[in-house]
Amino acid sequence: MIGQWIAEIEGEASATLRVELEDRGAGYIGRAYLFYPDANFPGFLFDVRLPAQPPFRATLSTIYLYTNGGIMSGEDRRKAEESLKANSGSTPPSEFEVEFSHDGAQLRVDWSYMPGQETVSPEAKGLLNRLRRTPHHPVQPVNGTVNLTLSDPAGPSALVARPELSAWDQFRQWAVAQPVRRYVFRGQREPRKLVSSFHRTWRNNVSRWIDDDTSRLFGAVAEQLNYPLQPGNLLHNSAIWSILQHHGYPTPMLDWSYSPFVAAYFAYEQAEREGSAPRIFIFDQTSWNDRYGKASLIVDPAPNQLVVIESMGVANPRHAPQQAISTVTNVADVEAFIRKREQEDGQTYLTACDLPVDSRPQIMRELELMGITYGSLFPGLDGICRDMRDRLFALPTPASAGEMNSEA
Fold it and tell me: Is 340 exposed, middle or buried (0-12, 13-18, 19+ CB in 10 A)?
């Protein structure tokens, strides 16, 4: 039951349903989001609380959202309801009865509501619910079923590496010939899926992370910051999240770099000699932003999204050396989300190259000559000690052994 589940609903008004559930011991807690690509429809949010044991039933209250995310004010909700009633003759019910069941990577949600609940008083709703339980009564519930698929962040990447960039010399020559900052790069020691550090954990409810984790963490680290960051300010939020991300706390962010060579360092820095090919992801952030714009950093509650943000580097000395830029996402399987957009747009946004693991000594040497080392990317005493360790405790190569013999 736990995980992020997604369904594409087809019909007169197509929509995307996203359900995020966590097992909190006493039961399953999470949220469901329904968004329509048609800007004339609002989005909807449902807080979900299910028992620990079946049957997994609950009553969900309908919360109105703006089309691009965020909870509507009372006045805007009233206007949205009036618009929906004028255009379609009805509004969504204020409550749904739901039952969840799952089988492997499939989640089934059976839903129902009583006609007339949309606008009647609580007392009348109670009467309608009693009538629903009366056999053969003409007032019958409206019901349906939605089947959702698990958005699985685990496992290897499905992205096929570019064959023309399979060697270091090929990648280096291609990289220096590209327009500056059109692409951003992410290095990984193996070709696993693109997944934020938050979505690699057991947790799935991003809203809880935003409401609980960030406020507690900000209180814990505020004394360490030399800039008066304020939670709630969108620019400051991204800066706070970036600081947490760079210091190892799980966030819904993915780290990228404007530099293909910084990305290469991170791809090779922990690569195993007999391991998988290090991978460098290449994301055409210019084309992505041209198509989708730089959306506001809402994240939750919001439609499925991947937002490119260039956070302020305050209180984060690693930001500038790493030429850092980030993406923030509320989807677990980022690659699948981008691939869907590529199919819809007829355009390629994300590619990758896999480089030979046995090229590590040559590449790390070249990167060192470029000034890209652990110490330069992680300023401070830790970086200095790590740099010196890498140099003085490195295994001798045949060349260095020969030099020692000649000196002897």
Answer: middle
Q: Are 311 and 245 in contact (CB under 8 A)?
A: no
Is residue 319 one of the residues assigned to a domain?
A: yes
d(CA 297, CA 309): 8
Token pair in block for residue 262 = 């910084």
At 113-132, the pLDDT tens digits run 877 655 444 544 454 454 44
Domain that holds residue 402: 373-408
Report the domain count for the chain: 3
Residue 156: inside a domain, yes or no?
no
| pLDDT in the model for residue 406 | 43
Complete DSSP assignment for 185-219: EEEESS-B----TTTTSS---HHHIIIIIHHHHHH
Domain check: are 367 and 378 in the same one? no
End-to-end CA distance of the chain: 67
Task: State pLDDT tens for residues 282-317.
Answer: 999 999 999 987 655 666 788 999 999 876 655 567
- Let me know whether 345 and 405 are in one domain: no
301: preceding bond cis by omega (within 30 degrees): yes
C-alpha to C-alpha distance for 19 and 101, rounded to whole angstroms = 13
Residue positions counted in the chain: 408
Same domain for 92 and 187, yes or no, is no
Greatest Cα pair distance in the chain: 102
Question: Cα separation of 408 and 402, whole Å?
Answer: 10
**Is the CB of residue 17 less than 8 Å from the CB of residue 1?**
no
Are 91 and 205 within one domain? Answer: no
Structure tokens at 6: 């997604």
For residue 166, which of 280, 293, 9 has the smallest C-alpha distance?
280
Backbone angle region of 11, left / alpha / beta, with phi > 0 → left and psi within -120 to 50 → alpha:
left
Closest CA to 61 of 107, 98, 108, 18: 98
Helix (H) or strand (E) holding 169: helix 168-176
Q: How far is residue 103's CA from residue 106's CA, in Å, rounded to a whole number?
A: 5
| Cα–Cα distance, 105 to 93 (Å, whole number) | 29
Give a yes or no: residue 293 inside a domain: yes
What are the E-state strand segments in 81-189?
95-103, 106-113, 142-150, 183-188
